[in-house]
Target: Putative HTH-type transcriptional regulator YdeS
Amino acid sequence: MAQKTAPDSTRRSERSRRAIYEAALALVGEVGYPKMTIEAIAARAGVGKQTIYRWWPSKSAVLLDAFLDLSEQASAELSEKAGLDEVATAIPDTGDLEADLKYVLRATVDEMTNPKFDAPARALAAEGVVNEQLGAEFLEKLLEPQLQLYVDRLRAAKEQGQVAPGIDPRIALELWTGPLAQRWMQRTGPLSHAYADKLVEYALYGIAPR
Amino acid sequence: MAQKTAPDSTRRSERSRRAIYEAALALVGEVGYPKMTIEAIAARAGVGKQTIYRWWPSKSAVLLDAFLDLSEQASAELSEKAGLDEVATAIPDTGDLEADLKYVLRATVDEMTNPKFDAPARALAAEGVVNEQLGAEFLEKLLEPQLQLYVDRLRAAKEQGQVAPGIDPRIALELWTGPLAQRWMQRTGPLSHAYADKLVEYALYGIAPR
Model:
């Protein structure tokens, strides 16, 4: 059994990979990150422990890939819903910033309130708050690339004259990602489409009289 | 030893109470909420386990009081710094909403970056993400009362014509509490006074051209 030749990565079974992702996401939601083990993921996925170690160096690496896969699936579903032939990898740009942000934020609310996403993402977010290394890894590979999509969209909006010249896009985007993250993590209020719409309006036009 | 008459609550030793709070805050930061026990708090505070059980029904109750005490201390320090005779329990109202919000948000940044606050608050915030009951308890007793101070200040600002009539204060306040919470919990960027100022400006005047 030991010293078996590792199969080439091109021979990875898609079915095993998916089973491992699903097992990792389910487990982390059920027992939390600290108690999740490679052994338990393997048992649940019906694969050998060595299969996992052959492809990933650590449990955080498995979980990261599982989340990347989950968010790709979410993008694919969203693109399909929008009738697109290809999976959208950017915030839509119809030329109407308000409409585009509302569209994306409503989808974000749908994802946050989807139980398939909610339990594993909570376990991960909770661990990232106290585990600086894991938090940094997920920020770099998962969260920041998503935030950068807003930076790109806001830069385009600036060129179109829809965002004021002095605004820093990397801070501006937090006017909606921050409130959504807080409502989700601290349960400070309901996550609804109406709420997403209001956030976009307040962020764009401000709360002071115009 | 057992069956000792419980002392009247007025006889609570201030010194023991403070030792218990400090032990609870230190422990939760070091081992996390799930592994924190009443026994360990008692040992660290140098009091008997029964002393704690006499005053608090559970570890979450001890920790909640410890946090309430910590935030009262922070308010007292802030009031002293501002040269006030009494401890401020509201957001200042100088008639200038922008200046008042910047003042309070800078103080919030100072608190969030203070190690005395950071470690225990992280442990608690992380647990609240996955532990719905604890999250709800702390939201109700600690977080929501703080958010309501902004609601009061925004209502006053509305009467003074500094907030547009259609704005919902309970959502508006999230334009700054959300980004601050996200930067703190998810470490998405530095927490500085300059950042706090920008949040206030963006929230008040919006990111679209005026």
